[in-house]
Amino acid sequence: MSLLEVTDLRVSFSTPDGVVRAVRGVSFEVDRGRTLGIVGESGSGKSVSTQTLMGLTPGATVSGRALFEGADLLTAGERRMRRIRGAEIGMIFQDPLSSLHPLYRVGRQIEEMIRAHEPDTGRDAARRRAVEMLGTVGIPQPARRAEEYPHQFSGGMRQRAMIAMALALNPKLIIADEPTTALDATVQAQILDLMRRLQREYDTALIMITHDLGVIADMADDVLVMYGGKAAEKARRRPLYYRPHHPYTKGLLQSTPSAAAGADRLRPIPGQPPSLIDIPSGCVFHPRCEYVMDRCVTDEPVLDPVTGDDDPTHVSACWLPLEALGLGEDAERLRRRAVEEGRVRARPAAAARGGAPEASGAVDATADGGDGGDTGAADRDGPAEGEDDGGTRGDGGAA
Ligand SMILES: Nc1ncnc2c1ncn2[C@@H]1O[C@H](COP(=O)(O)OP(=O)(O)OP(=O)(O)O)[C@@H](O)[C@H]1O
Ligand code: SF4
Ligand SMILES: [Mg+2]
């Protein structure tokens, strides 16, 4: 059994503007000692998913299951959750100032946290451990620094202090939500290094939330790509980088400088993340997808295992052929062919007449498809006629 098993997590908020469906059926698991990276643009539901596990989304409507060592976090009482927070699951946030109390000395805060969870630990012992932890996370002269207030620390040092606090009780799982976003690149690399080293030393499981695939490349064993409150793709790290299936993952890779595997130039994903009140029909990514087909607008894809990958955990929620993996030309040809067929289906009359309609004409059926940059026909390489590669999955869209 995994340390944490989240199944079909759904979280929504009632607001004056309508119901915000922030998380819409997400499942993932984290094993002991492993790192799950959760990646996605702003508003994709990364923070809400994990905050809900910790009981930190008051007022939200929540369903699903989140078994931590076999017990459901979503139905645990507040007393049990208080024990779990810190002692069993530690959290590191983007902004340490929101977690460190400005009016208490840093050492004292770690000391108090230890004593709150371990009433038998005396003040001196707790103090010694706090100083030791500050030393472990690389804060120089930890005994002196323990006497200082958070504002006397630099950003990087505050983040180290947060890590010291998260590790002080030796939790089994740490949830790190954008832990290095506010730091400059050098300090970011140091902090990630530190987290990796400590994780190995303490055999802690880690959930690393970020919008930066570069961070995932450094840290994660497994990756969950989120878009519009759902999982778009899940895989182990290497397959996700080298054999992505979902166009959103591909878009993220092609727009991340350090992660652009095989991409020769950076290409931002056109358009904006969706509203979570008024969610697009069919595939939630369709308004931005360069491969949008007719069925994408009406049918919602579910996570399916891709084919031809040696990662059995690799799944993707996209109607493109499941064997179209990676950023190479062959995969691109498969996608383009599927798109051409998928768009043709909208015009059964034309097809029946025996005409092979231009894909660029058929695409109009999908109205707001991306920025109109690629039309399928434009860079088609002319696959051999009559060759049957299985085309798009299923046959749902056929008239
Ligand atoms: N308390 C709340 N009430 C209403 N809507 C909320 C609430 N908390 C979060 N949301 C909405 O839920 C959606 C998901 O938010 P979440 O914070 O999980 O995004 P995220 O993926 O962590 O983004 P970021 O990268 O910006 O941190 C957003 O649209 C957000 O506005
Ligand atoms: S091809 Fe269709 S199903 Fe796949 S991501 Fe694009 S719009 Fe969604
Ligand atoms: Mg967030």
Please render the helix and strand layout as text.
Elements: E1 4-15, E2 18-30, E3 35-39, H1 46-53, E4 61-68, E5 71-72, H2 78-87, E6 89-92, H3 106-117, H4 123-136, H5 142-145, H6 155-167, E7 173-177, H7 185-202, E8 205-210, H8 213-219, E9 222-227, E10 230-236, H9 237-242, H10 247-254, H11 294-298, E11 304-305, E12 315-316, H12 329-344, H13 348-352, H14 359-362
Parallel strand pairs: 3-8, 3-9, 6-7, 7-8
Antiparallel strand pairs: 1-2, 1-4, 4-5, 9-10, 10-12, 11-12
Helix pairs in contact: 3-4, 4-6, 6-7
The structure holds adenosine-5'-triphosphate, iron/sulfur cluster (SF4) and magnesium ion (MG).
How would you characterize this protein structure?
- Belongs to the ABC transporter superfamily.
- Residues 341-399 are annotated as: Disordered.
- The chain has 399 residues and is of the alpha/beta class.
- The protein folds into two domains: 4-224, 3-Layer(aba) Sandwich (Rossmann fold), CATH 3.40.50; 228-366, no CATH class.
- Helix content is 33%, strand content 18%.
- It has helices at residues 46-53, 78-87, 106-117, 123-136, 142-145, 155-167, 185-202, 213-219, 237-242, 247-254, 294-298, 329-344, 348-352, 359-362; strands at 4-15, 18-30, 35-39, 61-68, 71-72, 89-92, 173-177, 205-210, 222-227, 230-236, 304-305, 315-316.
- The strands form two sheets. An eight-stranded mixed beta sheet has the order 6-7-8-3-9-10-12-11, with helices on both faces. A four-stranded antiparallel beta sheet has the order 2-1-4-5, covered by helices on one side.
- It is elongated, with a radius of gyration of 24 Å.
- Bound molecules: adenosine-5'-triphosphate, iron/sulfur cluster and magnesium ion (MG).
- Iron/sulfur cluster binds next to loops.
